[in-house]
Amino acid sequence: MSTIEQIAIYASILGGVAVIYGILRRIATRRKRQEDELAHEEDRLTLRVLEEQIRIVNENVEKIERDLGVGRIYTDGLSSAPPPVFDPFLEGTKFMTEYKWDEAISEFQKAMKEAKGSQLVGLYNLVAICYYTSGGRLSLVLENYEESLRLARQFKDKEGEVTALGNIGIVYYLKDDLKLAFEYLEEALKINRQLGRKEGEAIQLGNIGVVYQAQGNLDQASKYFADALKIDKEIGSRQGETTQLGNIGLIYKAKDDIEQALRYFQEALKIDKEIGFREGEARHLDNIGELYQIKGDLDEALKYLQEALEINRQTGHKPSEAIRLNNIGAIYRKSGDLDQALKYYNEALKIFEEIGMAQEIGKVKKNIERIKQMINDE
Fold first, then answer.
1. Element (H, E) at 181
2. Fewer CB atoms near the end CB (10 Å): N or C, the chain?
3. How far apart are the first and last CA of the chain?
4. CATH numbers and ranges of domains, the chain
5. Number of Cβ atoms within 10 Å of the Cβ of 298
């Protein structure tokens, strides 16, 4: 074979190899493009799943805020947390919407093991809410709120700090330590104003008004409620608005202006039903029931109070359930059914003692003593 023929054969072979190489390159390019497209599609699917999970979390949190009236729940950093934190956080909020408080606490504590920074601030806040709502002792509620506050200050998380301060103030109010309640609530109000958080400012104005009311300073309480209501209307906070309308109604009730009190409670109840604010609805049904009791219409009073009690039992809100039980006991006492009155008072006392609400324990014990004396006098 001549040299020229050999060269021709080699050229032919190389040409074939080049063709094959070109084909392989096109196949590889196409496969890479397909893999990239698949990866992009997987990324898009992952993003859609993540967006859906975040949407569910936001809906869960909004429902909890609406149902229980706990104000703005602080969850900073949790929606963007990695799966070991986000997944149990998501499950925990789901359990909260189902009023499964122990299960929710378990999920949040699971998330704590991997959480960092302000994520921990939010998780301790959520655990405290669950303990309080489910009837856990106030000492345990306070412990979790204080840890949330400590961490917020450690990580310079001002929003987490102001949330914890307000919550701690409310716990001290429930423990009947009004001096400490004022200190924490005033500090929360100051920081809210520094941060320009109008909703938080309105909440703390209302809370301070409640403490003034507990002291018997109705004029000062009324001023704070009016200031809070003004802000809530300006920013369009319907839940805040109905809360302050109810508070103002309580001032009129304390001043024995029953018709004005009834007007405010009915206006508040109307908003509660419009926005689905379950705890507000129960509270204002209870308030209206108490007014009917004062007016002597015990059947109407009992109807409103039983409806309020049913809502609290549905949501598992133990402190409010105890308040309704106590008020129903008062209706039965007034109607002369002392055995039923004693039954409801004892149920209320059991819950109050489990929680550690000192102010309410004292009131119910006096009611029970009065009933027992009345039974002995028969």
1. helix 178-195
2. C
3. 135
4. 85-196 (1.25.40.10)
5. 17
* DSSP letters for 270-319: HHHHHHT-HHHHHHHHHHHHHHHHHHT-HHHHHHHHHHHHHHHHHHT-HH
Whether the per-residue pLDDT at 334 is higher than 90: the answer is: yes
Question: Which amino acid would we find at residue 22?
Answer: G
* The token pair that represents 302 in the structure block: 């009992």
The CA distance from 176 to 184, in Å, is 14
Instruction: Find all residues with CB under 8 Å of 166, minimum gap 6, and list them.
Output: 71, 184, 185, 188, 200, 203, 204, 207
Residue 239, CB half-sphere, CA atoms under 13 Å: how many? 20
Question: How sure is the predictor about 311, in pLDDT bands with cuts at 50, 70 and 90?
Answer: very high
Q: In whole angstroms, how far apart are CA 249 and each of 253, 298, 324?
A: 6, 20, 18
> How far is the C-alpha of 276 from the C-alpha of 22, rounded, in Å?
67
Which position has the higher pLDDT, 215 or 46?
215
**pLDDT (tens digit per residue) in 164-176:** 999 999 999 988 8
- Helix ranges, 69-157 (H): 83-97, 101-112, 118-133, 138-154
Residue 216: other Cβ atoms inside 10 A: 9
